[in-house]
Fold each of these.
Amino acid sequence: MSPYVLYSDGKGNIFEDKTLYAIGRSGWDAMPVPEEDWIELPDGGSLYELPDRKALGMDVKTGDLRMCEKGWAVAAFIPPAHTGLYLAAFEAIPDAQTLPLFCYTAAGWHNNKFYVPAVRIERDIRQECKGYDKQKINEGVEHMLAAYPHNRLVEHLANNCALTYDCPAARNYFMGRWECPVPVSPACNANCIGCISFQPQEETIGSPQDRLTFKPTAEEIVEFTVPHLESAPYPLISFGQGCEGEPLLMWETIRDSIIEIRKHTNKGSININTNGSKPDAVKELVKAGLNSIRVSLNSVRPEIYTKYYLPNNYTFEDIRESAKIVRQAGGWASINYFTFPGMTDSIAEYEALRDFIKYTDISMIQWRNFNIDPDWYLGKLGVSDTGECMGLRQMMELIHEEFPNLKFGYYNPPAERMKNFDVDFAH
Ligand code: SF4
């Protein structure tokens, strides 16, 4: 089974080219996709036409790789809980505009269906699009705004996150379930090339969210998080969201919030999504009662990490320490691994990942699709050759074999799953 190449007419209409089989991309290289890697585009996935880019495919008769001249290339945005194994293969014309901050997975057409090379990496259903109920969300927003009329954070989560950005975590909060987002920091100590809450003026792409503009107080945080932990199924709260800078810059407020929250309830889990830049602050948060940490990174190779994060006054070693500190205290530590075919599955990255796991003893890898224009990313890092690669599926298998207790997923687990990862709460 080999799907056909997809192309668009530039007006949003997509067609298949039956003279070309769809192929994939890893780093700068176009290549065939193993048959077993294709799955139907999961529910909630969408397709993008890529302006000023021509699709590459394999000629169905000759087997040669060539360009589709019929229109613009097409890529897939695969829904959360799935990890893309190959990027879309395309050739950009000179001076093509940088693509916005989404993931661009390969896509093809077969038997009247769209196909993508991907794996379902996470059983948790918390961001399944069919699980969201607009009416319940609106009722929840109304109820919470009335319940907390002076709470700037609830107002932000309602009007910006849930109703404007369509944030899956904020919508779950207003449906009274699972993970509740707690953004706290207007500032950051990194300058990530693909930052989703701030993009420099000179860049042609925008950031999907605007950064928080105020510093919430511990009182504001405690007011709405305690009832959530008390009442929601599989409850957890997470500091560090896409609509803010770095939460560790607000560690004192987070510490005071955790201490106050735990005076009222022992239910659920308290997590922080962070760049991990301040291990001393993490130590204080663990003392206060932090249960889990998720450290975001594009690579576990310090040089690749540093070229992307452009950190202010911290180093790669600091982020390693932050993960290790939580593990040493018996907490749960995940990495939010921006997965990029050709970079993540390079032999050099694989070896560095093995060392990182051994040093930190992390609990989980969240294999999350990297939302970035592949040409722009590799160009910005100055990567002309990604080196030998093994394929993401094989890398996952090797890591799983060597570290059988290390969990794979896409989301921060609730306390119940930290105890027993195979708890079945998909209903
Ligand atoms: S750490 Fe987060 S908020 Fe800071 S620059 Fe990077 S993506 Fe943006």
Amino acid sequence: MNEKDHYPHFEATLETECLWLRPFQESDDAELFRCCQNPHLGDNAGWKPHETLEESRTVLHDFFMKQEDTWAIVLKSTNLLIGSIGLIADPKRENAQARMLGYWLDEAYWGKGLMNEAAKSVLNYGLETLKLSLITAHCYPNNQRSKALLRRNNFLYEGTLHEAEICYNGQILDHDCYYLKF
Ligand SMILES: CC(C)(COP(=O)(O)OP(=O)(O)OC[C@H]1O[C@@H](n2cnc3c(N)ncnc32)[C@H](O)[C@@H]1OP(=O)(O)O)[C@@H](O)C(=O)NCCC(=O)NCCS
């Protein structure tokens, strides 16, 4: 199948100082598996860490390559896939003008300001290209890194949705909800 069949309306590639943000492609499977085995990613972002390459391939096809406005984060200096960021429908809101920001980064690259760089570019895309009026983000209460990123990008805390989710491991978790109003 032609790769474009997966995301016919989404071809946007964004460039920042250190990163390419581009649509996912078939050949990202092994890199996705390398990153997503780490429980520190999935356990903070709300998905089960990947156990097999086949599982990563399924997620790649069924989610990352089907989803519009979801980018692979590629480090320019090495051309390696190091994360993902996207503006997807917010399951808590019935409003097409509002999207939810989701993101994860390979742990080896935390603490360098790279997600901050990606987020600024994607938030600008949400405002300028998608003409959104609101962007939301939801974090587990103990996800300090994610909350720091949101505060750095002017998101405001709007409240905690208690017992918002039963995780893959049976844990029941609250969502701390943030929003950015344009
Ligand atoms: C959330 C996540 C992406 C944050 O990554 P991060 O690297 O901490 O985020 P940033 O890109 O904003 O980097 C901030 C850090 O880089 C440092 N930094 C260096 N240069 C910087 C720059 N130019 N600008 C901003 N920060 C910079 C900051 O001081 C900060 O360091 P600290 O961690 O020592 O305080 C990452 O922890 C992650 O992938 N977690 C697992 C998945 C997840 O939780 N997803 C979100 C679900 S809601």
